[in-house]
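Typical record was shown:
=====
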Amino acid sequence: MAMSLPSARGKGRRAPMADINVTPLVDVMLVLLIIFMVTAPLMTAGVPVNLPDSRAKALEQDKKPVAISIERDGTIYLDDKQVSEDALPDALAGIASRHDAEGKPPQMLLRADKGLDYGRVMAVMGDLNRAGLNRVSLVSNVKAER
């Protein structure tokens, strides 16, 4: 039986390794993945609104919806731009004129502060309905099951 023993002249030396060590790369990628998973929910764009809690599951979205936010003092925002109550119907009519490939108007997300008067939210929903924007989702915080 032949055994491969190290030669006497190469004692203590190793041949150069031609393989790439991917362990540090995988470690860095996993750390970056965790960082992005933690920070992504914190990057929700929009107006900070104190949303009510709900046990409903999240909606699946394929296109970016238009967000309407109503603060506690009644200030209305379309995405990030403040809109006056008088200019809201015209702004909604402009949004309703945009259609996707299927001919549907864009999905609307209504975010309203939980301390807001119910009548104020219904007035905005009435403006949405008059503009022909009937695909409206009400946004809430998801409450964990106990």
The mean pLDDT is 78. The first strand starts at residue 53 and ends at 54.
